[in-house]
Amino acid sequence: MKDFSRNNEIPLSLFLLLCFNAILAPAVQALTPGELPRTTSYAIGLLALATFGVCVYLFVVIFQPEKF
User: Fold this and answer.
1) Structural domain boundaries of the chain?
2) Per residue in 6-52, pLDDT tens?
């Protein structure tokens, strides 16, 4: 039988990522001078989260290469 908690890991992480982006996007919109459309601020927030995720992944790969 498959592990049920393992199957729910990806949707849960995507949901948490979108929730964090919903918190981050208004901060991006408040910090930029002038008018910035809402979709652009969400895109910038998602790009920042993806960049941070890649940085963490590369940090782990560099310092623990035997796991990969």
Assistant:
1) 4-67
2) 567 778 888 888 888 888 888 888 888 888 888 888 888 889 888 99
